[in-house]
Design goal:
The complex is a heterodimer of chains A (159) and B (297). Helix content of chain A is 26%, strand content 27%. Chain A is α+β, with helices and mostly antiparallel strands and 159 residues long. Chain A has a single domain (19-148), classed as SH3 type barrels, CATH 2.30.30.40. Chain A has a five-stranded antiparallel β-sheet with strand order 6-5-4-1-7, with no helix packed on it. Chain B has 297 residues and is mainly alpha-helical. Helices cover 67% and strands 5% of the residues of chain B. A three-stranded mixed β-sheet of chain B has the order 1-3-2, sandwiched between helices. In chain B, helix 9 packs antiparallel against helix 10 (186-210). The longest helix of chain B has 25 residues, at 186-210. Chain B is globular. In chain B, 53% of the residues are buried. Residues 1-28, 46-51 and 180-184 of chain B have low confidence and may be disordered. The chains are: A alpha+beta (159), B mainly alpha (297). At the A-B interface, strand 9, helix 2, helix 3 and helix 4 of A face helix 3, helix 4, helix 5, strand 1 and helix 9 of B.
Chain lengths: 159, 297
């Protein structure tokens, strides 16, 4: 009797297409929530490193999400992790640590540590690295670049 | 006797053994030098540290990458040409978006190194540096795309982080254990910085002097072939570039001559992986913009 009931519940759930959302966390400096599952999609929200979202299963590298503020959209699955990223305030300031905990020093390897490293190595060329980080190409420019050069994927496509 | 046990426990704990660490913390609790909470913290740290590079968070990977790139760019000066750097980034960032890791903590960024040495480096997190000498081995945009996709392949497979010695991780265990047991204030930051400095040195040394293992180079080539196909570049560009590199690179030369497998071996491996090779046939507009770029190199 119980077995029949169980199968009935499973059947009913599958009929209505219930999928259970999972909590995932942003693992990039600036997580972008887009209206469509494409890097060309309009950005509808920006999330900070460590922010949590309710996530549906991955679909070809894209995950449908709902933010804590209730906004819905798509994020590149690569920008999300199942690991909980806790923001800890310690000697090194805010830093990410995986929930498996602490990893290679939960308080380490952040901007404060970089400052210490710079103090001890004043000749190291961070100026060029800072310049590099500012070079960000908009997806629309990439699209034009591919079209102008007749670069077309033979099968599938660039995500 | 208890003191001796603690010393033995600590010494073995530094070698990265969770069991011994647990024994050490148990003794610490028994002798009243550690509270239960501190002992638990040390044990959890020991377990985490033993997981190695895989547990380095994206933020930490980014900061390691920044310092590795800054160190390399101290020896290899950047080539100052805004238009050429922009073209390289449009191509590189487009390829990165099609890789299996389209986003990293701080994104992918590309720069040209002002040297005729045939060389390229990719620091953790997505800082890619390519020499003028290597770019000159490319006769088409498809070939240059192969170079950049190979470097992206190193980033997506986290090859740089794998170069960090296990002893650094054990060093981090020591810092965390000490920090949990006592309050060291600024000294803690200094110690973490020391572990950071050691990690930067491990990665930089691997990139510049030793090179990755052949298997990791082949893995980066395999990732590159997938990325090129996804975007729509002809993977034969990789074979063409390697052929040119073979001709231009004197035996025993610095850069790739020292740190990478023989180009011929890479050609054979990539040819086998591809099966059918379609000859390069560059559309006029694509070749024109590439030639324009190459003139500045």
């Amino acid at each position: 009797m119980h077995k029949h009931l169980l199968w009935a519940v499973v059947g009913a759930l599958s009929l209505v297409g219930v999928t259970l959302a999972e909590r995932m966390n942003v693992q990039v400096q600036e997580g972008q929530v887009r209206a469509t599952p494409s890097f060309l999609g309009t950005v509808v929200a920006k999330l900070a490193y460590g922010a949590s979202v309710e996530a549906q299963p991955d679909q070809n590298g894209w995950t449908q999400v709902q933010t804590a503020a209730g906004q819905q959209g798509w994020m590149s699955t690569a920008s999300l992790t199942m690991k909980k990223i806790t923001m800890t305030a310690g000697a090194g300031g805010a830093s990410g640590a995986s929930s498996d905990e602490l990893a290679l020093a939960g308080k380490g390897f952040n901007s404060d540590v970089e400052k210490e490293f710079k103090k001890q190595n004043p000749n190291v060329n961070f100026a060029t690295v800072d310049r590099m980080t500012k070079i960000k190409i908009a997806p629309q420019e990439m699209q034009t670049f591919l079209a102008d050069g007749s670069v077309k994927p033979s099968t599938g496509g660039a995500k | 006797m208890k003191v001796q046990l603690c010393i033995v426990g600590l010494a073995l704990g530094l070698a990265g053994c969770t069991t011994v660490t647990k024994i050490g913390t148990t003794i610490g609790q028994a002798t009243g030098t550690l509270t239960a909470q501190q002992a638990d913290s040390i044990n959890r740290s020991a377990e985490a540290v033993e997981k190695t590079f895989k547990d380095i968070t994206p933020e930490q990977e980014y900061y390691i990458g920044r310092s590795v790139a800054a160190t390399i760019l101290t020896s290899y000066k950047p080539y100052e040409n805004e238009a050429a750097t922009h073209y390289l980034n449009v191509l590189g960032q487009t390829l990165a978006l099609a890789s299996s890791k389209p986003e990293t903590y701080g994104g992918y960024h590309f720069i040209i190194m002002d040297t005729s040495e045939i060389n390229a480096f990719s620091a953790p997190g997505g800082f890619v540096m390519v020499s003028r000498g290597l770019i000159r081995c490319c006769r088409t945009e498809d070939a240059l795309a192969a170079v950049l996709a190979h470097e992206v392949g190193h980033v997506e497979n986290q090859h740089g982080l794998k170069a960090i010695k296990g002893s650094r991780l054990t060093g981090a265990l020591t810092i965390l254990a000490l920090e949990a047991g006592k309050s060291l204030g600024g000294q803690n930051l200094a110690d973490v910085t020391k572990a950071f400095e050691g990690s930067i040195s491990d990665v930089t040394s691997s990139l510049v002097n030793k090179g990755y293992s052949r298997d990791l180079e082949y893995q980066a080539d395999a990732s590159a072939l997938k990325t090129l196909k996804r975007v729509g570049y002809n993977p034969a560009g990789l074979l063409d570039m390697l052929g040119q590199m073979k001709q231009r690179m004197p035996p025993g030369s610095a850069g790739f001559g020292k740190t990478h497998p023989d180009p011929q071996l890479r050609i054979e491996k990539a040819t086998n992986a591809l099966g059918t090779v379609t000859p390069l046939a560059e559309p006029a507009a694509r070749q024109a913009r590439f030639v324009h770029f190459l003139r500045a190199i």
